[in-house]
Design a protein that fits this description.
alpha+beta, 4-stranded antiparallel sheet, 3-stranded antiparallel sheet, 27% helix
């Protein structure tokens, strides 16, 4: 019986060893399969799948094959930015203005408040030392102001849309300062001021 028991212990150890080797081999195979699946992925697998030719929108078909950006993607005034131009930017200040009458101030009849939502115009003060009025080139777009002199260059993205054709500019030679007054576009006035 001892002999049979001893052999049964040996048999159990051999069986245990056989099963553990088989389990290790299965784990190795599973690991190899997961590694090979990951190895097949590349940078192109990240994100949404690419569009096929049939899925190209009509807006993309209007663009030339050499275009990088559409006109909507380019900020207004970016054509004036020249990084190789060594002229410094002058000091400037933007002031929002509103016309207030006594009935607005004391009685509050027009529902105006000191916020920028109630402002009607934008005043841009630009200091131009050692500059004459004849040296100033000024171009105003809806959201961009371009000022150039022999000594200074300013490309200013305006914080609000303006009526560029209705603006006024005055040069004060005593203070060596240019003041540009631009009426603001206020598309929400029919909601805000009623």
């Amino acid at each position: 019986m001892e002999c049979a028991g001893g052999s049964s212990v040996l048999n159990l150890e051999a069986l245990s060893e056989l099963l553990s080797k088989q389990q290790e081999e299965e784990e190795d195979e599973d690991w190899k399969q997961s590694v090979s699946a990951c190895a097949q992925m590349g940078p192109g697998h990240i994100g949404h799948p690419p569009k096929h030719d049939a899925e190209v929108s009509s807006a993309d078909s209007k663009r030339s094959s050499k275009d990088i950006w559409s006109e909507e993607e380019v900020a207004e005034g970016s054509q004036y930015e020249d990084l190789t131009d060594p002229r410094p930017q002058p000091e400037y200040e933007i002031i929002l203005k509103q016309s207030v009458k006594p009935e607005d101030l004391f009685l509050g009849l027009s529902r105006k408040d000191p916020s920028s939502m109630c402002c009607e115009a934008m005043l841009v003060k630009i200091k131009l030392p050692e500059t004459k009025a004849t040296d100033v080139f000024l171009d105003v777009k809806e959201t961009f102001l371009d000022l150039r002199t022999t000594k200074y260059k300013l490309g200013l993205h305006l914080p609000h849309s303006v009526h560029s054709q209705e603006g006024k500019a005055r040069f004060f030679s005593e203070q060596e300062e240019l003041e540009v007054t631009l009426p603001m576009k206020r598309p929400m006035d029919f909601i805000n001021m009623q």
